[in-house]
Amino acid sequence: DNLFVFLLLFRYFKVPPQLVDTCLNYGISGSIILRGMFIYFGLAAANSFAPLNLVFSGFLLFSSYQLLAEGEVEEDEDEEPPAIILSLLDKLPLTGTFEGEKF
Length: 103
Prior knowledge:
Largest sheet: none
Order of helices and strands: HHHH
Strand content: under 5%
């Protein structure tokens, strides 16, 4: 199923066939590095702040109760992104096309 998702993403972003391998390599390498960092720092934080586990547990129980109590919520598909995302998109130099081998 992941292969299907990758195929959909590459088609949606119109990634040229010669850049698919490069994109996959960057994505796989990045996910391995980031997962390792999250696991390492997450374990370090959990060990340092062990008493806070009760607070986090309470928050998770409260959040799950809210989700169960509110039922099914309809999502508005025409909703604009948050203001912080819009301001970041204005400041970042992004293009909608590929420029050579840059993506």
